[in-house]
Write the structure tokens for this entry.
Amino acid sequence: MTAARADLYANRQVILTPLDENPAATVERIADLWRATGARVATMNPETHDRVFAAVSHLPHLAAFALVDELAARDNAELYFEYAGSGFRDFTRIAASHPEMWRDIALANREPLQQELTAYIEALEQLRQRLAEADGSALEALFARASTARKAWGRNTQ
């Protein structure tokens, strides 16, 4: 077992999504098992879990898949990939994920994912409008809000 690691779940987030029919004692026992591995355990109802992960996991995967696929379909795709740098690499790393698995995840969580796609498309449309209007102050304000939020999240995840 060369790949076994005692600290695999140390300080990792594990989310339990108990159903109404799950006895509280059973859920707590499962939580204790996870805590024994070093994991941080949270509990969410399944609907909240699906909404949250549609936004912070599934949508980023779809965005990365879409961008890479759109560029790869261009007649001169090799030109774009030749000059793609670290930002592209970082943003699209997850587009190399397992296609069959992500197909299944997208379909299983399609309603919350469609809601998140709609919200994201609206945000992109607002960006497009700010660019069309050459509204530098609105762009900068959005970039500043996003930068502040990302930095705050980054500090909380270390």
